[in-house]
């Protein structure tokens, strides 16, 4: 049996993998200075980005929650895989053949990896079945909705045959057990054993943002099918419907680029939008749009400003209106502006494309209205605005919506909008909004109102040292900046200069702990050396080391950064020379001028002056 992966292969795979590509599949990253990228942290909820990625070092660190590590630790934390699985996944991604040490422990694998593999195998099975004679009904279903074979292939649409064990038999032949297939939600248990969960249906694979198949959505096709119209994979270890968005794997690049997302209601609506040119469309999977969906979207959008747009498309019927109100309760967690668009004559994007073409689907977005206005209209629609009682009742119902607006510029504008809608005096509306706001404050947070961000305190409590807590003195500043420069650009600096700069103890104990770890690195030319150095820093100073590696080093270019880091190293060397010179000047006052000790001190002073001059000449 194969043993552990060879360490040389582990290092090689990591060195060939750009950590920004892996993290960028889940988080929209923007430039944050020389060699640094920034985005919203995937490990905790935040409104402004504090998650830094440094591709050259292969390192990430969140200045908000303190999470940090390399590409392997990122995959392990995000996908709950073992170290071995993380290495194997990245090796497969770059086409690298791994070697295992004989006699070592067997590679550890989690059940999650088997669930991913089983779902991928099922997706391939369903896709292959779409071209069989039995699947004619599925091909006609797709064709009647404007989707040809190319569209089906692009979205991975397949067909589940009517029999009870077609998929089950195919996957058992590939080595999957009944327990694994059941855990993946692919089969159900009956009195006579397991049977296919999806039968006689058109099937859509539901993927995560990286493209891994998590589960399936399936639509009924046959009249004798007594099951629900749409049937989804049940909750599994890897499929959480409250966190999954159909089509996000295909839309993520444009969502990140355009900072816009269009939320539709079904799989065919997503297909219709993408084929019509709205390639930022996504949909929930058998559940209402909620806070977990927002968290996923914000990270992909890079939702750290009000420049983005989230457009919801809802049917104008009662169910659609109810869905819009539910979405509004959570949508305030977006920094982006939120809108609602409804199709003409109540047509959803799929039907609209069939009836009026791709242009009509694209034009749908031009009819969008701010979600606040849409909700206000829904709140007051049930009142008779021709009567005094009706207007007052509508005001009392709608005022809390305006009161909960965070933006101090938007709230007075919507006071005027509501006043116009009701035909009431603006001051009367403003007073009611203020009263509603006070009621919210005294009675606690309303359901669906924004949740204040909070990051749990560090396990080290007051012992945790960060860049923000370091003393603001010149001596600490040069030690801090020099360490940051060496950690980030040491591989391009003069090794002798770096060694001399880190030779003497630092004045601040936390920075000195980092200095010792960096000083003891065997080679700064080895990929990943800085990440390894951070890992060896003794607690409670490791978080500070991570911040130094991930922080924004002030420079306009790589060359300027290397030059600046080298200058800081020289200043540390100079500081050491000046310290020794000062000590010698004090000592020479205490010994006879013509003594051996005095001559030795004067010789050393001349050497120090020559060394300082050589360093100054080198810098110039």
The gist of it:
With about 625 residues, this protein is an alpha+beta fold. The chain has 26 helices and 17 strands.
Could you outline the blueprint of secondary structure elements for this entry?
Elements: H1 7-16, H2 19-24, E1 30-31, E2 37-39, E3 51-54, E4 59-62, E5 68-69, H3 71-79, H4 83-94, H5 111-129, H6 136-144, H7 149-155, E6 158-160, H8 166-173, H9 178-183, E7 187-190, E8 193-196, E9 201-207, E10 213-220, E11 230-232, E12 245-246, H10 248-258, E13 260-264, H11 267-276, E14 281-284, H12 291-301, E15 309-313, H13 318-331, E16 337-341, H14 349-356, H15 358-364, E17 369-370, H16 371-380, H17 388-403, H18 410-422, H19 426-443, H20 474-489, H21 495-501, H22 509-519, H23 529-536, H24 542-550, H25 558-588, H26 596-619
Parallel strand pairs: 13-14, 13-15, 15-16
Antiparallel strand pairs: 1-2, 2-3, 3-4, 4-5, 6-9, 7-8, 9-10, 10-11, 12-14, 16-17
For this entry, give a set of tags.
DNA Primase, Chain A; Dna Topoisomerase Vi A Subunit, Chain: A, domain 2; single chain; DNA primase DNAg catalytic core, N-terminal domain; 17 strands; six-stranded mixed β-sheet; 5 domains; 620 residues; flat; 50% helix; five-stranded antiparallel β-sheet; alpha+beta
